[in-house]
């Protein structure tokens, strides 16, 4: 096909009068090369315009075609004549005879030599855009150790058995092992004991919860709309779909396609449609008086950037206002990607407001759905009346009796929400929107029209529809010829287990990003991932089985002198646990943890007034029973006032896609673990368990039980002496000589240790 196309173009060029082709070659080509192509070529296409082929000239740039055969009003002639606001070349004007040459060229129908006729494909020598090539190596360990050998470094020995089971348990299921599990693993000397442990953890239903939390960061998952109103939204079925898909080890290519375009699959099931909630996680603004089109466009732009960051590790969003400053991505190509996501059916005018952030997938009989729709209308009506009151009483709106009454009405109304399960999903409009370049990133400044397409630096789509859609894009993302998706996904997996990726800038594989420390290891994993059917559990297993992963994390002076940031991985890295895992660990060691998987979000206790900062006050009714002690990933996440115990430990705010969490170390974190009512309750429960399990034992033996339970290791002599002295001081300080109170103080210390919140 490519050869035939080139032949036809060449034939067309040679069909032109030789004198015209000679005119182009001697007069026009040197002029274009000297005055135009420095800024307008396939590799430097300012304003989306390339002037190094006739095909590109006809296609034009962000403002439309640059030239039309025989048309004296062609854009290229207007700008060189300086007839309008746009004047080219910048800072000077061509000589009259040069302008006349271009006018004559257009008049003759833009004749050209054969090699100038066809558009050139953008090329890049940057490593990330090259095909994945599997290195000739036995595996990851061989590649990592080869780099160490170059620096005369040896790998560290394997971590002790207790550390290893705690590490792999926290990494794979996000929960610490029980004392009994640790004891059994330490005692098991069989050659395959670790392998069997890994397989057991991968088969756990809690594996899906742990790994889903990483994906939900990418998906910018939250239970509310964001912005100032920040109303609740129905989206938890999407979260549960992710957990199920990961537990079922759904291949990553299918995992991608269903989230991106499950609704476009033939005879799409409710599960496939629910999966499309990925791109409905964008924040939504429903304030009165806003331009809904503006915020709809913002949502689509977010989806473009999220897509490029999650699957391609690129910052395509940087080309929203102009061609990318570093990567071979033009502004036109940004809006070609934008066009794939621009047909989503959602609120784009005031009249649609009653549908909130439509469309929903409702899972109830028609009467229940109708009842829910009426409830939606009633909620919107009350919220609109609240806003009108606020506008009429801007200074004292919060104190006005009529406002207060309306807010109470809203609270009562929300309590009566019909129990019909529904979830936000993607669905395309029946009538496609027009797609065009937004000049300067301004959605009101319409530039050249565009159709859906992928950046030219990548391999093209295979057999797309006549007008490519989201399903075509999803299939292209996981096409084995795409050089980035497998690399980016495996790099994030590496980051999960070692704290940072082989490419440390995990969201930027472009020219401004870091180069990989171990490119061969990254390509080995990427090729293994694709060859193994895109199975994530298989790759988790591969990584945690390596000697590199199983190394001790103890610091080494010899390695630190050569490699202070441990980029060569002469040892493992110590990692502060994620916000959710800190809470989950405390729940687990106290025995309070509710282990139900999935379901609606829950409301564990929060400090008084913690959610009073939002524009619309919303009730936080603390969950009861098991729901009070669910895993933290099920905590209702309100973007404008997230649970303090999550945000303080660096949980993302759910506003944009998060590809790597920050790991900070602040005094507020220690204050929460010591003084927050929730953690005080955990300490009380832990103390009671220590006293119950250690009935009849002396204090040192009880402390040993406490260490087994909280840190999954034995008590050291020096630690025992200090804690016994602390326990005695607490007993003396208790007026009523309360033994549970004294042990609660000890439990508070254990739950606040750096070791408790760290994965060695």
- What percent of the residues sit in helical stretches (DSSP H or I)? 40-55%
Low-confidence stretches: 1-14
Biggest sheet overview: 2 strands, antiparallel
State which percent range the strand residues make up: under 5%
Q: What spatial order of strands do you see in the largest sheet? A: 1-2
Global mean pLDDT: 91
Terminal CA distance reads: 56 Å
Question: What's the tally of helices?
Answer: 31
Number of strands: 6
Radius of gyration: 31 Å
Content-based structural category: mainly alpha
Shape: globular
What brief labels describe this structure?
760 residues, mainly alpha, two-stranded antiparallel ribbon, 31 helices, 6 strands, 2% strand, disordered N terminus
């Amino acid at each position: 096909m490519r050869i035939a196309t080139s032949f036809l173009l060449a034939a067309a060029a040679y069909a032109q009068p030789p004198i015209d082709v000679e005119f182009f070659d001697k007069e026009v080509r040197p002029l274009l090369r000297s005055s135009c192509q420095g800024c307008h070529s396939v590799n430097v296409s300012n304003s989306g315009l390339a002037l190094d082929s006739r095909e590109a000239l006809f296609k034009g740039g962000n403002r439309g075609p640059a030239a039309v055969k025989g048309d004296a009003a062609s854009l290229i002639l207007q700008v060189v004549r300086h007839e309008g606001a746009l004047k080219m070349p910048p800072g000077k004007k061509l000589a009259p005879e040069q302008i006349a040459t271009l006018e004559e060229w257009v008049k003759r129908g833009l004749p050209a030599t054969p090699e100038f006729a066809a558009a050139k494909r953008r090329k890049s020598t940057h490593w990330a855009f090259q095909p994945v090539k599997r290195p000739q190596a036995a595996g990851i360990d061989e590649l990592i150790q080869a780099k160490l050998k170059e620096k005369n470094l040896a790998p560290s020995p394997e971590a002790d058995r207790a550390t290893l089971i705690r590490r792999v348990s926290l990494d794979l299921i996000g929960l610490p092992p029980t004392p009994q599990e640790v004891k059994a693993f330490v005692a098991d000397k069989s050659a395959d004991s670790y392998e069997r442990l890994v397989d057991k953890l991968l088969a756990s239903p809690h594996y899906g919860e742990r790994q889903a939390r990483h994906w939900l960061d990418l998906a910018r998952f939250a239970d509310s709309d964001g912005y100032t109103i920040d109303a609740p939204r129905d989206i938890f079925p999407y979260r549960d779909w992710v957990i199920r898909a990961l537990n079922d080890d759904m291949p990553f290519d299918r995992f991608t396609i269903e989230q991106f375009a499950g609704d476009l699959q033939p005879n799409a099931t409710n599960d496939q449609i629910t999966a499309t909630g990925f791109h409905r996680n964008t924040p939504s603004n429903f304030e009165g008086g806003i331009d809904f089109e503006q915020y709809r466009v913002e949502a689509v732009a977010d989806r473009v950037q999220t897509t490029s960051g999650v699957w391609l590790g690129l910052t395509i969003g940087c080309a929203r206002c102009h061609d990318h400053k570093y990567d071979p991505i033009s502004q036109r190509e940004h809006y070609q990607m934008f066009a794939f996501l621009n047909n989503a059916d959602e609120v784009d005018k005031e009249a649609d407001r009653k549908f909130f952030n439509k469309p929903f997938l409702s899972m109830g009989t028609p009467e229940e759905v109708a009842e829910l729709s009426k409830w939606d209308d009633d909620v919107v009506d009350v919220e609109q009346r609240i806003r009108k009151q606020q506008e009429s009483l801007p200074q004292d709106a919060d104190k006005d009796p009529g406002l207060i009454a309306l807010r109470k009405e809203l609270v009562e109304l929300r309590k009566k929400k019909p129990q019909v399960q529904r979830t936000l999903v993607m669905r395309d409009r029946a009538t496609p929107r027009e797609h065009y370049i937004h000049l300067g990133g301004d959605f009101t400044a319409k530039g050249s029209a565009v159709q859906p397409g992928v950046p030219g630096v990548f391999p093209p789509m295979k057999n797309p529809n006549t007008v490519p859609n989201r399903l075509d894009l999803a299939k292209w993302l996981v096409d084995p010829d795409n050089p980035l998706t497998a690399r980016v996904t495996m790099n994030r997996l590496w980051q999960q287990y070692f704290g940072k990726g082989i490419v440390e800038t995990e969201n930027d594989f472009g020219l401004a990003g870091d180069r990989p420390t171990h490119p061969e290891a990254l390509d080995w994993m990427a090729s293994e991932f694709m060859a193994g059917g895109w199975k994530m559990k298989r790759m988790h297993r591969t990584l945690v089985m390596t000697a590199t992963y199983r190394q001790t994390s103890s610091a080494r002076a010899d390695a630190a002198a050569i490699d202070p940031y441990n980029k060569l991985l002469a040892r493992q890295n110590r990692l502060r646990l994620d916000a959710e895992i800190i809470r989950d660990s405390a729940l687990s060691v106290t025995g309070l943890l509710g282990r139900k998987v999935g379901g609606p979000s829950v409301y564990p206790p929060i400090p008084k007034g913690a959610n009073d900062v939002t524009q619309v006050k919303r009730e936080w009714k603390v969950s009861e029973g098991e729901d009070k002690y669910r895993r933290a990933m099920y905590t209702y996440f309100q973007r404008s006032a997230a649970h303090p115990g999550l945000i303080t430990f660096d949980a993302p705010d759910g506003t944009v896609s998060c590809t790597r969490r920050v790991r900070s170390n602040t005094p507020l974190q220690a204050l929460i673990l010591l003084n927050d009512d929730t953690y005080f309750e955990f300490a009380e429960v832990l103390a009671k368990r220590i006293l119950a399990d250690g009935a009849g034992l002396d204090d040192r033996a009880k402390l040993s039980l406490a260490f087994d339970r909280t840190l999954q290791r034995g008590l050291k002599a020096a630690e025992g002496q200090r804690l016994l002295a602390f326990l005695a001081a607490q007993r003396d300080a208790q007026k009523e000589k309360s033994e549970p109170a004294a042990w609660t103080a000890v439990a508070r210390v254990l739950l606040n240790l750096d070791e408790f919140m760290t994965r060695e």
